[in-house]
Amino acid sequence: MSQAAGSRAVSRSERLAASRRDEILDAATELFAELGYSDSVTQTLCERLQVGKGTIYRYFPSKRDLFLAAADRVMVRLRAHLLAGVGPVADPLDRVEAGVRGFLAFFDAHPGYVEMLIQERALFRDRTKPTFVEHREKNVIRWKELYRSLIGADRVRDVPVERITDVISDLLYGTIFTAYFTGARKPVEAQARDVLDVFFHGILSDTERRRRTPPRAG
């Protein structure tokens, strides 16, 4: 076999393996969200995919590995979804709006993903950081840079960017978890409008804000 033919064969093999892995994770995510981290998941997964357990374990040595890979994939897909929605937007504040709407729409379309994040925190307390926290820390850097640029342009108050990103993150995750637990079906646009209104404008009137702002020294 020539080197070129060997490369093509390896590439095809890798593509098939990646496709099978994605297929397993798609089905596993649905089952974990539906059945929880139960003993029936692996057998049901094999039946749904019409494969033996050996095929599953070839890609994921244990049910724990499978679950954590599925949870990680949720956050990878979230990042890709947000980049696709935010990337074409030029104005920084419009990018924030697009990010908020994209985040809420992603989990509204995939409520099972919320269940995965909840289960991970409940089941794997031995982990130093949940998957969503790990991904948040990796991806928050670009948002901090965006807020620094807005502060520099005098479009956002000069407050620590860490405070800004922490608050908006808490608002968004709080929104999706609350909606999931209560079964509220408030439209995504209404959720986004409420979050953005409070985040951008606060709740105080201009008069009250001036009254509560301490005078600057000197």
Report on this model:
The protein is mainly alpha-helical. The chain folds into two domains: 61 residues, Orthogonal Bundle (Arc Repressor Mutant, subunit A), CATH 1.10.10; 157 residues, Tetracycline Repressor, domain 2 (Orthogonal Bundle), CATH 1.10.357. The protein is built from ten helices and no strands. The chain is elongated. The mean pLDDT is 90.
> What is the second-level CATH architecture of the largest domain?
Orthogonal Bundle
Shape: elongated
> pLDDT average, as an integer?
90
CATH topology of the largest domain: Tetracycline Repressor, domain 2
Roughly how many Å is the radius of gyration? 22 Å
- Give the CATH superfamily of the largest domain: Tetracycline Repressor, domain 2
Share of helix, binned: over 70%
Our estimate of the beta-strand percent is: under 5%
Distance from first to last alpha carbon: 81 Å
The CATH class designation of the largest domain is: Mainly Alpha
Q: What would you call the structural class?
A: mainly alpha
Secondary-structure element series: HHHHHHHHHH
Our count of helices gives: 10
- Tally of discrete structural domains: 2
Tell me the number of strands: 0
Major beta sheet summary: none
Low-confidence stretches: none
In a nutshell, what does this entry contain?
The protein has 218 residues and is mostly helical.
Record keyword descriptors for this entry.
Tetracycline Repressor, domain 2; 218 residues; Arc Repressor Mutant, subunit A; mainly alpha; 78% helix; elongated; 10 helices
